[in-house]
Amino acid sequence: MPFQDGWGPDTKQCEAACRQDCSCTAYASANESKCLFLYSDLLNLHEDYSGVHHVDEDVFIKVAASELDGHKKKRKALTVVAVMLPLLIFGLFIFYFWRRKQMEIAKRKEVLQLELPTEIIAISEFNSINASRKHQHGSDMQLFSFSTIAAATNNFSMANKLGEGGFGPVYMGKLYEGQEIAVKRLSRTSKQGLVEFTNEIKLIAKLQHKNLVRLLGCSIHGEEKMLIYEYMPNNSLDSFLFDVGKQRILDWGRRVCIIEGIARGLLYLHNYSRLRVIHRDLKASNILLDGEMNPKISDFGMARIFGLNESVACTGRIAGTRGYMSPEYAMKGLFSEKSDVFSFGVLLLEIITGERSTSFNRLDCSLNFLGYAWEMWKNDNVELLMDPTLKDSTSAHSIKRYIQVALLCVQESAVDRPTMLGVMSMLRNEAATLLNPRQPAFSYLSKEVEENLPKKNSHGGCSANIVTISDLEPR
After folding, report:
1. Per-residue pLDDT for 105 more than 70?
2. Which residues span the membrane (predicted)?
3. Where are the domains positioned within the chain?
């Protein structure tokens, strides 16, 4: 239906009239001030009123209020989207790079778990140990960056190298704040070193005693894995004990302090630490000396934790240093606190004699280090056993007592050996009566080895050649 005429003085009255008429779909004003109403669909306004009246430019269409509200809501939604979308994209962009950075940090921290055996400690455990130690003891154990350690050791220069063991090379370093450190760098070819690395973090990180070397932290960067310790300026005990030029520095009083310090450290491991720990590799090279020559037990790579009710354990993987291993461990893989007591006894005899147990050579070629010590004590010839630098000492009686304690520690049967608590009591209480030791383990060389030894010369002595026995498992 085309526009139909209607009268009205102005546009507002036209609007009111169209609103009241339900059939009205639109209205307009003509040049004669008339209201023109549309009662049909809005198909072609030009055809609906073509040639009848001249319609003004404005045509007003009646639209439901709900449609206007919907249109407004759509426009508002589009506006919100237009504003929020760039912000969302920007936020996702920032989150992506933040997440990527966090993953790189996590990857560096967890590389140990990816490359080492499944039993290795996680870095999160390392951090929890660190937090616990810091809370209880004020420790500052931490995870060092590779660049920090490289700078501290002058890029691992040979001038900074202190030595090398089964784990790998050891370097002296100095952190930027001036603290001196010792860095054990895991050798890439060392399979045993991976296990040692795990053990060091698991065990020594939870232990603290003045006679145990302090672990400051570790560094993990790709294949590079390092342990960082407090620096011991006097190196290891063997560097003094078996050096002719330095032996005199170790007078008897200083040796007693070293012996008692080692004994206190072992007693702590066996009885008083949070964990019952069996060291399993006690020897002169694993005793470090600080600036005042105080001893500190180091290298916990082979150490094992014992339960409170556990007395003996067995392993199918026998690894250690010949001359220091107890017979039950060397032959059957059995180890206990008494295994460490045996090693302590050997070390005690080395401190008294100034001789290496592994390269011992005397006139009687059928006796090894322990056998010779026992024979000298049994025949009351301990002066032949003492380090020559100690022969002018006025403490001959004390030295003889220490030899007897050492021989009690190296008896063949583990049951006959004292505990470290008993050892400490015997060392401190000179009035206590000591038992006579039984013949020690491995007193004589095996027939096969003895047959290969050089015969005694015409003067009753042996040639200078030294026969060695291979380790059960090299360190």
Report:
1. no
2. 77-98
3. 4-62, 116-231, 235-475
